[in-house]
């Protein structure tokens, strides 16, 4: 039943309907949002959290750049 769901003609019809519903200006924004959402989902599945890794690297760099107080 769902064997030929994603044939080129079906995809073209879906694209035309989406274009009619959302308009040419909104469609790229929706695609970008969908792509970012899928990327975030994949990163979450893999257990990769780039933001926390970047924050840890930044914190390590700031700690290393600050001079340690010397005892008198």
Care to describe what's here?
With 72 residues, this protein is mostly helical. The protein has a domain at 13-46. It is built from two helices and no strands. The longest helix is centred in the middle third of the chain and has 39 residues, at 8-46. The chain is elongated and about 75 Å long. The N and C termini lie far apart (82 Å).
In short, what is this structure?
The chain is mainly α. The protein has 2 helices and no strands.
- Which oligomeric state applies? single chain
Q: Strand fraction band?
A: under 5%
Low-confidence stretches: none
Shape: elongated
Mean model confidence by pLDDT:
76
Gyration radius (Cα, Å) is 24 Å
Q: Cα distance, first to last residue?
A: 82 Å
Biggest sheet overview: none
Number of strands: 0
Report the structural category.
Answer: mainly alpha
> What is the ordering of alpha helices and beta strands?
HH
Approximately how much helix is present in the residues? over 70%
Number of helices: 2
Lay out the secondary structure.
Elements: H1 8-46, H2 50-65
Notable features of this structure?
mainly alpha; 2 helices
């Amino acid at each position: 039943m769902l064997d030929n769901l994603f044939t080129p003609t079906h995809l073209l019809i879906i694209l035309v309907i989406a274009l009619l519903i959302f308009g040419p200006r909104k469609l790229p924004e929706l695609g970008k949002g969908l792509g970012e959402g899928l990327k975030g989902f994949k990163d979450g599945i893999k257990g990769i959290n780039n933001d926390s890794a970047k924050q840890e690297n930044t914190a390590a760099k700031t700690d290393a750049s600050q001079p340690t107080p010397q005892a008198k």
